[in-house]
Amino acid sequence: MLTVRNLLERFPDFSLLTNTELGKEVSSVSVMDAPDIERWMKGGEFLITSGFTLVSRIEEFGKLIRDLDARKIAALGIKVSRFMHAIPADILELANSLNFNIIEIPEHYAFTDIINPVLAEIVNSRYRELTVNEEMNRKFLEIGIADISYEKILNLLSRYLGDQVFYLNARNQEIHKTQFCDKPPSIRELKSDAYSNYDIEYQRVHYGTLFVKGNASSFQERMAITHAITMLRLSIQSILSSKRYEEQRRNDFLSDLILNNIHSKEEIDFRSQEYGWKLDDGVFCAVFNVDPKKPDTRVNLSRKLPHQLESIRLALKERCKDCYYVRFSNYIVFLLVGMKQQAQKKAFVDMLPALIEEFGSQEFSITIGVGKTYPDINHSCNSYNEAKQAVSIGQALFGTDQFYLFDSISIYDLYTRMSDEDLERFVYLDAVEMLDQTDRETGTDHIRTLAALIDTDWKMSEAAEQLTVHYNTMKNRTAKIKELTTWQFETREEKFNIEIAFKIFLLTRKSKVHLTKKRVSNSDM
After folding, report:
1. Which of 172, 179, 185 is nearest to 150 (CA)?
2. What does the buried/exposed string (b/e) look like for 353-363 if buried means 16 or more CB atoms within 10 Å of the residue's CB?
3. What is the reported pLDDT for 34?
4. What is the mean pLDDT of each run of 10 residues along the chain (525 residues)?
């Protein structure tokens, strides 16, 4: 790169008339042949003039200086002795205030004596820069092929910028340094004015920041940083691809395990060795199911759901040592290994209310199902199916934002296994289905009313309060149900049969009408 300083060194009899910085880049040479020359300036020019047009329009000299400075030309060269004899003091004062370079050119110079060598120097400088850039590009690419680690990239970058180059990983706040740097500065020091910073993004996600001591002023330094940023992005891409591949293999293995696609202990041991896992001494599964609370928001929240699942995974991994997971579309399955003792499982269950409170929200509900403990890893599939069933039964009967142990809720699993013939013989179930059909055809609230009565242990005043209706309204609704079904709500046996029929209705018909406010804890089951 050719600068104003290089220009003065190339022409030692040129005189700088201003007290200004000389680091501006000279990208071309132009001759001033018109008063409005600034209209054709692109920036970076060394503009030379005999001064003839300035003498006749000296009152516009200040405006010209401001216009040329706005166009970011490198310097104005004037043959002062030819026509002007001296630059007005107020013009020099203005140029100094703008950091605008004015150079006096000796009268004996022909313009071609200036233009030709300057342009030749610019071309040679560009050629040298391109050569350096090509060599730099080759070296960075060699790193990409051999070792694309952060440290190797910083080591190469330090050849051009010195050892004070660092990369701050946004994921874990780790500061990466060169091998020649003894101790990296603190994050606070890196974010000071002493360092220039460059954000490293990949697919519109921020992964880290490159910090460089001082400012990259030369072309070579800027190109080195550009190459380093490219290689850091490639390094991030490589790390992400490796993690996705490893996660997919791990997911495949654990999916085979819980779906009963592995039929020997030997195969389990062989495949688990790849990850250094020891899968023995008791296992049970827990299913964490996450759903949008409103069906119409499911599509809108689809982008947030993976983040919600990832947050749950991190929280559980932090709390449980031997915990392995498989992620599905809207739920995560955790295999908890080494939980043979009942006290260990109890400790796990005890922390579930806090997790539900932490990750349940206005947008998402969370339901957790926990399967039984088995002594052999081969039986993971049994515990997984039980955990899924606990979620399904719990949501149907008692709602979301709860956890359900299959040990406690398994009695209801019997209802889901009833044959069609058994269901048809259960007359109470026919009556519940008739009430549901009536509600859908006429817009009545028989099912909601029945649900409230059951949830409040058949106390009509509490059921009315739960539905936020008047007590007389509740009496009228109950009387209508009795009229349609011939139920009397009098004997304990009849109420028991109605409750069982209602639960079977919820479980087997996959109804969405259970809108009660009561939430049943596992201690109630």
Report:
1. 179
2. eebbeebbeee
3. 74
4. 88 92 89 79 89 82 91 92 89 94 92 88 71 66 64 85 89 88 89 91 87 82 84 81 76 86 82 77 88 65 77 85 83 82 80 88 87 87 91 82 86 69 71 88 90 88 90 91 88 84 75 39 38
| Residue 516 structure tokens | 């009660």
Residues 6+ apart with CB under 8 A from 326: 251, 254, 255, 258, 332, 333, 335
Q: Which amino acid is at 262?
A: I
- Taking a C-beta distance cutoff of 8 angstroms, is the pair 426, 504 a contact? yes
Q: Report the SS3 class of residue 193.
A: coil
Distances in Å between the Cα of 244 and the Cα atoms of 61, 156, 208, 511 are 65, 28, 19, 38
* Structure tokens belonging to residue 10: 């190339």
Q: E-strand spans in 466-525?
A: none
What gap in Å lies between CA 287 and CA 384, rounded to an integer? 7
The angle subtended at Cα 419 by Cα 417 and Cα 424, nearest 5°, is 130
pLDDT value of position 78: 93
Distance CA 408, CA 390 (A): 9
Q: What is the per-residue pLDDT for 274?
A: 76
453-472: buried (b, 16+ CB within 10 Å) or exposed (e) per residue?
A: bbbbebebebbbebbebeee
Q: What is the spatial distance between Cα 391 and Cα 368, in angstroms, rounded to a whole number?
A: 6
pLDDT at residue 399, rounded to an integer: 79
The DSSP secondary-structure symbol of 468 reads T
Which tokens is 101 given?
A: 């370079």
Exposed/middle/buried for residue 291 (C-beta within 10 Å: 0-12, 13-18, 19+): middle
pLDDT of residue 298: 53
Distance CA(367)–CA(55), nearest Å, equals: 86
Round the CA-based radius of gyration of the chain to a whole number and report it.
39
The Cα–Cα gap between 427 and 501 comes to: 9
Two structure tokens written together for 524: 């109630």
Burial category of 326 from C-beta neighbours within 10 Å (exposed 0-12, middle 13-18, buried 19 and up): buried
Check residue 102 and give its pLDDT: 94
259: phi then psi, degrees, rounded to nearest 5: -95, 5
pLDDT at residue 518, rounded to an integer: 38
Q: Which residues pair with 77 in a beta bridge?
A: 48, 103
Instruction: Identify the CA nearest to 157 among candidates 166, 148, 146.
Output: 166
DSSP letter assigned to residue 415: H
Q: Yes or no: say if 213 and 185 are a contact pair by the CB < 8 Å rule.
A: no
Contact indicator for 62, 91 with CB cutoff of 8 Å: yes
Number of residues assigned to the chain: 525
User: Max alpha carbon distance in the chain (Å)?
Assistant: 123
Q: What is the pLDDT of residue 520?
A: 37
